[in-house]
Structure formats: C-alpha cells, structure tokens
Amino acid sequence: MKFIKIFYVIIFFVILCFGIKGPSYGEERNISVFVGGTKIAINVPPDYAEVQRKASPELWKIAESWTPQTKELLALIVERTVIESSTEKPITLKKYLLVQAPKQNKNAKLSEGDFSQFKKEFKQNEKTLGTKGKDEEDKTIKDPRDPLSEFINPKHLETGSFPLGFFHETANSIGNVVIIKQIKGGVGEKAPYFTAVANNILFLKGKLFYLYVLKEYHSQSDSDWVKIMSEHWVNTTIESNKEKKIVKPEPIRKKEKKDDKKDLVQKQGGDIKIFFTNGRTLDCEKVWREGNTVFVIGKGKKYAVGYSESEIDMEKSFGVKKD
Known about the structure:
Number of domains: 2
Strand order of the largest sheet: 3-4-5-9-8-7-6
Structural class: alpha+beta
Strand content: 25-35%
Radius of gyration: 22 Å
Distance between the termini: 58 Å
Number of helices: 9
Helix content: 25-40%
Order of helices and strands: HEEEHEHEHHHEEEEHHEEEEH
Number of strands: 13
C-alpha cells in the first residue's frame, strides 16, 4: 500500500513539473486565455500540450522572443514529446504554436466593422518585395534571380522576412505566411536559420487576438504544413467559442436515420469538389462527416481539416438537403 501511494506521488510530481494539462495522446481539448477580461477558449491540437511558464521557463523564453512589446503572450503550445524529452541538452523548438493579444485597447469591445477595417489595413501593410507570394514559392527554383531563391541562399547573411501572401480570410479570421530569416552561430560559423510563420488573426467575442504557427523552414512542405495546421487550429478554436444553444429533443421518426459518414462517402466519385457558403471551393481526395463537422483531405495533402456544416453548402457539395 505504501509503495502505491509513493508511486502516485511521483506521477503527480512529474506532471506538475512538466506543466502538462489534459488527457492523453491523440485527444483534442481546450485551454482558456483572457483578453481584456474576456474568456477565450483555445483549442489544443492532438499530441500537443500547453507549456506552463513557471514549469518550463526555458521554453517560455523562446516564446517571449517571438512576442513584440506591443503584444502580450497568452499561451505556448508545443508537441508533448518536447515537454517529455530529456532536459540535459539545450531545448530547440522545430514547430510550435503561440497565442498573443495586442496590449492596446485590449479592454475595448470591437465591432465587426472594426475588424473589417483592421483586415483591410493589415492587407495593405504587407510588404510584397516585388513577388507574388505563393506563386513564387510554387515555382521550381532554378533562376538565381528568383526573389525567394535569393532570400534562402545560405551565402546571404542578412536577417529579414519574405511574405508568401494570404491563404485564408473569413468574417472572423485572416491569415498569411511569412518566412523569417535569422542568423545563428559565432564568428566564422554564422549561418542563416529560417522559420515559416503563419500569422492568424481572430475576432471572437468582440476581441482581437493572434494564433501563430511556427515551423523550422527548409522547403515548401514546411510552409504548407503551417497553413494546414493553421486552418485546423483556427476552425476548431472558432467552433470552441460558439455559444451552445439548448436544442429541444426531436420527435422519434419511424424512418431509420442514415449513417452520416456513409452518407457522404456514397456521394463521392473520383475528384471531389467542396463548395463553401462564402463562395470558396476546394478540391479534395477524401471527405467524411462526424457529427456536425465535415473533415476533408485536400488534393495532395496529408492532413484532414475539419469544417462546420454551416460553412459548407451541403446540398451543392453532396446533395444533402437541409431538414
């Protein structure tokens, strides 16, 4: 009995030290942050965990290095394997998530019009560097005069940033991707270090805040990854902050209810095109539905992204009529 008590004490101490919250691997959950006193639910993706400032000051310091003085760092989310790994070696983060909020007017409640104006100014302020963003990255880089090729040239040791353009915009969010170049190493050993950063700005409950997805950049697959992760994180966070409505129980129907997942799969044939209510379309290879969420795997993508049924024209996409 004494041994069992000691065992549970040790387990509790390990969890406390590493600052791990929530359930085990593979499960999504929410944490709470406060923007000007307003509680915002932030989704934590599967196999990721929130870092506690006091428990992991070294990791928190890395997050603070990405936080300008005009913003407040609200949360750092990293892979669980990073938190659970040995601390004997210096910690390096190859991919992680940040939640920040602007300090200015954080107590003010913004309107939809305010956010629309903010998005307009945000897009106008992005530097183009004479490129077309994503189009430049998609090209096979052979021409040494290509701007992106020049930027990632290891011989060039000047810090800077290269915008790849905006990849999503809705009434509640907007996101763009930038490659950041830093210089690391001592005298005679300096080398450029690149990070792909997806800057996602959300407007929920009258508050403005930022979700950043960062990954060590080596090729286009890395910038693609921050986009895919961003779309999932933004969608699940928006869904987590929706007000729960009390739904009255529906009367029992004699007709058997169709299996939702099978319903969508049966309507697939070859290439699948999803039509969104905002006019956007998406070509995908696989689609299924779980509850009120439709999961899709885009063409050439490895990860599924979940969308609320309200975001998709279900009748146009699958012939599923609203009840």
